[in-house]
Design goal:
By secondary structure, the protein is an alpha/beta fold. Helix content is 48%, strand content 14%. It has helices at 17-32, 55-58, 70-78, 96-104, 106-110, 130-144, 162-183, 193-209, 215-222, 238-255, and strands at residues 4-10, 35-41, 82-88, 118-125, 147-148, 152-155. Helix 6 (130-144) links the parallel strand 4 and strand 5. It binds flavin mononucleotide (FMN). Residues 12, 14, 16-19, 88-92, 124-129, 156 line the site of flavin mononucleotide.
Length: 258
């Protein structure tokens, strides 16, 4: 039997708050059930800054001129049942290292693939605005195709007091429980109206505006997404079926070439 695997991608060069609290999160998961985990510190990998050529988007990620560890990291995500993005709050956003990593995954927002896998985030902040980063990660996880468990923001103002650390532990412990209960289900949920709309909009725009010379188009074709109800097999109720058809009609019209 293949063991459940969870991988956390840490966007801090230090082994401090982001790393240590992520480790506690993973150790909690291990205490709930039989699983293996890996902590990937992005700092240990070669990740180059995207130069914006858009070859990955238009023609295929294999044509990217940057030769770095992008594919090793994507493989780690593919091999995992659960994925966590953990970052410190730097200047009210994810760390630069985490952003470089997210940009290297840019083409996956066009061609999502992590279906059935569970995602969450941990944001360590000194004082303020980490909750916005958690919201950003919720959106990122969903865009990559994951089932998203709302992330958590921990405040790590130094010097850390015992009381402060206890508060963090409580947040991490609760969060890890929520994550675990979703992880073990490995669901392929039926989309709500918003997600259904996004899927139908994306495929209409790709179908109408691109052709077989574009990787997004061939990816959708190969996956049968031009004809399917959603990214993966789902049973839509009659209302969603009807609304889905309506979305197709509207977006096909909007994106149709003159
Ligand atoms: C360059 C830099 C910018 C930071 N900007 C913010 C910020 O905008 N808001 C905030 O609340 N904390 C900020 N912090 C504090 C860190 O988010 C906080 O110390 C965090 O716990 C660091 O995580 P680490 O221990 O894993 O490195 C900043 C820290 C650094 C080094």
């Amino acid at each position: 039997m293949i063991r459940t695997k969870v991988t956390v991608f840490v966007g801090s060069a230090r082994k401090k708050h982001t790393y240590n609290n992520s480790e506690r999160f993973l150790q909690n998961l291990q205490s709930f059930g039989d699983l293996e985990y890996e902590i990937v510190q992005l700092n240990d990998y070669d990740l180059e800054i995207c130069i914006g050529c858009k070859l990955c988007l238009d023609k295929g990620e294999e044509l990217c001129p940057l030769k770095d560890d992008r594919d090793i990291l994507i493989e780690k995500m593919m091999e995992s049942d659960g994925v966590i993005f953990a970052t410190p709050n730097y200047s009210f956003q994810v760390s630069g290292m985490m952003k470089v990593f997210l940009d290297r995954l840019g083409f996956i927002f066009h061609r999502p693939r992590f279906f059935g896998k569970t995602f969450t985030s941990i944001v360590a902040q000194g004082v303020y605005r980490g909750k916005k980063i958690v919201k950003y990660f919720n959106f990122i996880g969903s865009g990559l195709g994951f089932n998203v468990v709302k992330g958590s923001c921990i405040t790590t103002l130094e010097p850390m007091t015992e009381k402060g650390q206890k508060k963090i532990d409580k947040i991490i412990d609760k969060h890890s429980k929520r994550f675990y209960s979703k992880l073990v289900k490995q669901e392929y949920p039926t989309p709500g109206m918003f997600k259904l709309m996004i899927f139908r909009m994306a495929r209409s725009s790709i179908k109408q505006m691109l052709n077989e010379n574009f990787r997004d188009y061939t990816y959708y074709m190969e996956n049968g997404w031009f004809d399917s109800d959603y990214y993966y097999p789902v049973r839509l109720n009659p209302l969603k079926k009807m609304v889905g058809k309506f979305f197709d009609m509207v977006f096909n019209k909007i994106y149709s070439r003159p």
